[in-house]
Design brief:
Length: 169
């Protein structure tokens, strides 16, 4: 008999919830649904605790948390690879990583002036200054750090060109 009362009560509340959902503005529906899901889960937990079946729920939660932990580790490992795509998808500009090489049209020929602009060094820069500027930039813009292959290749080409120019002088 108590189960019949429970089923009727759930049916009445479901009907009232459906009526409320239909009369709610579309922007508020997601918030309302989240609240109802939370309340429903809390009621289920209370019902399971009252009937002595909560230990199964605890085991299921532990399993879900363990699997979620492993999935988060995998996600964290591949997040740097997916970051440029995610930023592009969200429409976020990478303001900190934009430099002269990225803003200019693609060209395979790199001039010494362009190489100096990319590495932000003067015309009279020494070998150590060029290598230091290259190291700083490549640490920020390497593909493994959220940069991309194009930027890394332009930075490497700029360093090679300026060092070759120094050796020939």
């Amino acid at each position: 008999m108590p189960y019949i009362v429970l089923i009727i009560t759930i049916g009445i509340f479901s009907w009232l919830a459906f009526q409320k959902l239909q009369s709610t503005a579309p922007k508020e529906r997601n918030k309302l649904l989240r609240q109802w899901i939370f309340i429903g889960l809390a009621l289920i937990a209370i019902l399971l605790a009252m009937t002595g079946r909560l230990h199964w729920v605890g085991a299921a939660i532990a399993l879900v948390l363990a699997v979620a932990g492993q999935l988060l580790k995998i996600f964290a490992r591949y997040l740097p690879l997916a970051m440029p795509y995610l930023l592009k998808r969200m429409g976020v500009q990478q303001g900190k990583t934009q430099n002269a090489a990225q803003q200019q049209p693609e060209s395979s020929v790199l001039t010494p002036e362009e190489a100096q602009r990319i590495l932000n060094v003067s015309q009279t820069a020494s070998r150590n200054e060029i290598i230091g500027a290259h190291r700083k930039l490549i640490q920020k813009l390497h593909p493994d750090q959220g940069g991309n292959d194009y930027l890394a290749s332009r930075i490497n080409a700029a360093k090679e060109l300026l060092i070759k120019k120094l050796e020939n002088s």
